[in-house]
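Instructor's aside before we start: the two examples that follow are unrelated to each other. I chose them only because their records fit on one page, so don't look for a connection. First example below.
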Amino acid sequence: MLGDAIDSRLNKRERYKARLRPYDYFAEFESLDFENLGEGDRFYLQDFGIFTTDFLEDEFTMRLRVPAGRLTTEQFSYIADVVAEYDLTIIVTARAGLQLHDLEADNVLDIWKKLNSHGLTTWQSFGDNIRNIVTNVYDGRGKYSEIETYPIIMQMQEHIVQNPRYVGMLPRRVSIGISGNRASITSFFANDLYFALAEKNGVLGFNVYMGGKNSEIAQDADIFLLENEVFDFFKAFVEAFYLHGSRFSRSKTRLCFLIKDIGLDALKNHIEKEYAKPFNTAGKLQLEKVSFSHNEMLKDGSYSYCYQTDFARLSADEMQEISKFSLENSLEIRLGIDQNIYLFGLKDKTTPFASPKESATIITCAGNLCPYSFWSIKNETSYLPLSKISEHGITVGFSGCAKGCGRHRHTDIGLIGLKTNNFGAVEGGAKIFIGAVHTSGLSVGRMLFSMVPLVHLHETLSLIIEIYELSGYENFEEFTHEILNKFSEEFLALWFLANIATKQTLELEPQGSGFEYEKELLLKHFPKVDFLESFDDGFIKSVGALSKKLWTIEGEDPRYKPKINRVVAR
């Protein structure tokens, strides 16, 4: 692949790989001085599940690979013991894995050894690898499950984990999702490779989608696979990306850039060569929008329970309580990509223990546990209208930076944490995204506001939800598709700002389109609002001017702020 001479055009990580394969580096692993790591060490350690940075050199993060989010009760309890023993912080990842924080140089190796026992592994959970392979948490057991994908996932995992050819040797990380369910809790279209339930000629199988990421929708590859063909396709895909993925500019090595560079058809040709037989064209996608309750009846007549975490955070005590209850009642524990814990096999609808937060539909990144996050996302969720979000099952993606680990563009409402002085001395704020039609992979969210100060976030999101309530649509995604996406982002931003300025909640109902129609709506419904800028060049200047007028103030903490009495009008 790389040849004897090291190509100077290769990015830095590829030059390391060319000198020494990550798998061969592992021979030095146990003799490492974790207090004096070099740049290369930090790069290689990611392939074994250890992350650290040169600017936080004494702090380590470790990630467990949990295929399909499935753990035994004994494994869950054992992890809790390790967390308690070393006083670690643990979160559920958005790929249904577990991530441990607050490890130190003098204990990271001991913890790594413990977490790579009892059938657990941290291998290839970071770095340029196939990351933890995810599926629907109800896989094989829920009433919408048609094909159980866990056996396929385990085949995939066995093919790539600790395989010297692939350990850390892909051009970039690859995220893979597969669901044999007709309804999912969250979207899988953010994956580089997604196998979605489909039907062709009366037979169920999978359609293939490729090129997704946190800011992109995976594209329809027009390929249909039977259940027993998925693993062979997976092997062909991995080899094709290994051979043909770009290894030059690090910012353009994800699969989506390869597709943009050579085209989807050319990528399919590379995969088909490795697959060694022609592809069948796609079938009909089998996906429907469903709202899930905290207790769902399963196929066997038993029930599940969704334990909502503290925005992905868990404590050792919580984990032990869940383990004990599950062991006593012969329950199965699963992790969801919504960062919640699911118990399967309850005899009836019950709440064995209360969840600490209303977080079922909110996905968050690691927040201040990650060096790239701007502020503590998990601690700032008090600035969200949680009760309204929970009541309507609105999905929210909360990312601490533009990397988008909270999948903010694949949810009903997306947020990116920011710091800025554009509105005076504020602690922080968030970009707001709306407009994703994520269930069917139709579109990602559009940016509504480039910055809303934290102290105004609750009011702004509450207004958006209140206008949704006026629409009468069954769910927020339908409201997005039928109402919000009929208007430009700039108009919507100005519409919401004008409602805030006049303390109104006015219904939106498109009866026309285009700039002139949007301008007419604003002037008709808000004749007394000083938009500060003319509309001659569009709405962008007015959005900036009115937002500064409304938000360049100290503001009040929404947790203690009296509810605004708005005038509601249809």
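Example two begins here.
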Amino acid sequence: MKTRFWKSGDPFIWLTGGALGFSLLMIVALLWIVAVNALGFFWPDRLLLVSLSDGTELLGQVRDHEQVPQTGDEQGVAYRTQFQVGNRDLYGADFRWVDDALILDRAYPEEAVSFERLEWGALFGFLSSVSVDGQVVAEGFSHSWQTFQDLHPKTIDIRHQIERIERQEVGDINYEMERLRLQIRGIQLHESDPQRAAQEIRALEQEVAGWQQRYEEITERLSALYQENARYEIVVQAAGGKQKNLPLAQVVRAFLPNQMSWAEKAGLYVTRFWEFFWEDPRESNTEGGVFPAIFGTVMMVIIMSIVVVPFGVVAALYLREYAKQGPLVRAVRIAVNNLAGVPSIVFGVFGLGFFIYLIGGSIDSFFYEEALPTPTYGTGGILWASLTLALLTVPVVIVATEESLSAIPREWREGSLALGATKWETLRKIVIPGALPGILTGAILAMARGAGEVAPLMITGVVKLAPTLPLDGHWPFFHLERKFMHLGFHIYDVGFQSPNVEAAKPMVFMTTLLLIGIVVALNLTAIMVRNRLRSKLRFGTF
């Protein structure tokens, strides 16, 4: 009876089912932890004012509460509370632990204001006055708050004008002046007729002078806008008797968290959530948005997929359908399988040496000589990072495609050949369409792995903060030589390289959740296409 029970295979079915269930449970638990810590990042918490036994006060948001370990002869249970006090430029730290036994009084003052700043993180305090051109125009909370609300939209509008001018107009001028400089350098290097070279250089220098004059005009406009924004200043009274003079232009937004209704908090939550997707990062990447990282991640995965899928499929077709099976082909298959287990950083070093130094350096020598010694393609960029990840993931596509090709019934091939089709026609019209679901499975696995890799990118083109996107309005529009930001590296940088780890923790969780969402979205898109192909294959609609 016992022997029959084990031979039936039921224990192994339960074992594999239990392992699957446990794995799914761990994945759900991981996603739950990430989501809980991430989605609460944008909710505006109330500001708590506490009076301590030493006579000082503390204003901040409660972030954690835990039991304090007891040592020695101490009796009883003690607790402590972690406050996010902000005001890093005043206190030197954003967070502070306080023993509950030291807290004498707690209050939620309605006049407490939470300021989000472009620099130095959050500022918590009480608005005491507003100044224009050094003259106080409002004092007291009510008058100052109303004046602040009247003036703040104006400063935001001016700041947006400054950003637009610096990015678009100044960026266009810098681009054109650099282009003209390289043309002049190219003429000096390659033009053999000195008289003709001098004439061409003079014409280009006149263009440079025109752009320089335009730059000076824009600089004057920017100076006037900066001076206009510098006129407005507020005074914030922080807990502990400290005072902060804050330029109004540095304030991203301000709100009264202890007076806000649930609907107002929900509206602010949605606004912050939207900004996270579409704004640029600020404050060492610990605040603001991650749009450049989103763009870089998606663009890199698309370029990688465009490269890896055709090469992987062609290699698998040759190995399975054309190559004569023997020791050499078996050795190639073993090598492909072994490549799948090579550490990713090794591919990064190979990409650095082969793509960047060898190919990129050669491209610079032949086509961008006038820009040397500043490299164009001989340095890290999104193209070389994508090709490196393509090498990293091509074994996955080859193996998946070969398995899919081997699963096509032999009768399909023989029937097609018997009807007079050539081998290529059989592959194109019978074998490849039937194997497409398996090919897409390999592409899905390749995209999932490539989107999450970080180590190879660190030495092939990813950066902490990219000044420009790889896509803009200048020819050739797609600038594949540019460095880029990546969500995976953004997580590493914010989580492990930030000087303010506690403040950066919510951003790490939110970026992690976003990266998971992008990978899932890319995979779901590929899965939907695969399922559609399977249904067509099932009903013979190819």
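The CA atoms of residues 69 and 75 lie 11 Å apart.
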